[in-house]
């Protein structure tokens, strides 16, 4: 029997699944969730590791090759290495990555690597300890820096650092982040602040287009070139400063959206398929897990609704969008 692949009506082939394992987080980053008032899913509402593995087995048969585990903070979920081991044994799965804030990673890096984890993305929005604590509402930067070293030591490389740039908050640290790439095999990825779950005046005041990164390179007389060899599942445009060991990337969903090459679907911690990060459409897959054909058809149905663009730039211009924006926060979707 020929299995239908995950190709949408705009001829985009989907071989990448982002899996949120929890909506909880040990931090409260200012761009991700409010300081108070978040309601989290009870543990029994979350997909079990067996349920997640069952879904991935179906999708591997439809061409999915790359996975990313996200949250919330995925390492607040107990024994995440057990899930990694289960997923790594699925025929066809070639790459399993993790996005984390790094607070709990140092002591678990080796176990995750042995289980089959391929790479890590670590969120780090400031190199200043006080500012980092302010952005994360209480985070300890030293734990994150220790996790970076631990990942280098166990061979989880290249390490990607995710930096959400915010006007007036951390945009004065661009040069410092770029300097990290000079003598370490690190990919610093600057990310535009996205209006997921909110597009209020605070977001508009903090939003900063990533052209600023090139301006900082010019101010420091750093020449750079575009590179394409970096292992990547995502939408980053990657560059290397002349003489640097590492590299930097730009993810600019607002100023230069990448929807035409989108290759990813999302599975939320509470069992919904999200065909697009920005829009409200979602499909409950948990009710059909165990029926592989029903799972397959539900993913195809979800993919048939995927729009051509997320239209996030329209929020900045206060223009009408063609779909209903999601009200779920980034931590509730999985990023």
Automatic annotation (TrEMBL):
It holds the Pfam family Radical_SAM. The keyword Cytoplasm does not apply. InterPro entries: Aldolase_TIM, Elp3/MiaA/NifB-like_rSAM, MoaA, MoaA-like, MoaA_NifB_PqqE_Fe-S-bd_CS, MoaA_twitch, MoCo_biosynth_MoaA/MoaC, rSAM. GO terms for molecular function: 4 iron, 4 sulfur cluster binding; cyclic pyranopterin monophosphate synthase activity; GTP 3',8'-cyclase activity; GTP binding; metal ion binding; S-adenosyl-L-methionine binding. [4Fe-4S] cluster 2 binds at residues 259, 262, 276. GTP binds at residues 18, 68, 99, 160, 264-266. Binds 2 [4Fe-4S] clusters. Binds 1 [4Fe-4S] cluster coordinated with 3 cysteines and an exchangeable S-adenosyl-L-methionine and 1 [4Fe-4S] cluster coordinated with 3 cysteines and the GTP-derived substrate. It catalyses: GTP + AH2 + S-adenosyl-L-methionine = (8S)-3',8-cyclo-7,8-dihydroguanosine 5'-triphosphate + 5'-deoxyadenosine + L-methionine + A + H(+). PROSITE patterns: MOAA_NIFB_PQQE, RADICAL_SAM. Its cofactor is [4Fe-4S] cluster. Residues 9-225 form the Radical SAM core domain. It is an enzyme of class 4 (lyase). [4Fe-4S] cluster 1 binds at residues 25, 29, 32. Keywords: 4Fe-4S, GTP-binding, Iron, Iron-sulfur, Lyase, Metal-binding, Molybdenum cofactor biosynthesis, Nucleotide-binding, S-adenosyl-L-methionine. Its EC number is 4.1.99.22. Pathway: Cofactor biosynthesis; molybdopterin biosynthesis. Gene3D superfamilies: Aldolase class I. Monomer and homodimer. Catalyzes the cyclization of GTP to (8S)-3',8-cyclo-7,8-dihydroguanosine 5'-triphosphate. Belongs to the radical SAM superfamily. MoaA family. This is GTP 3',8-cyclase.
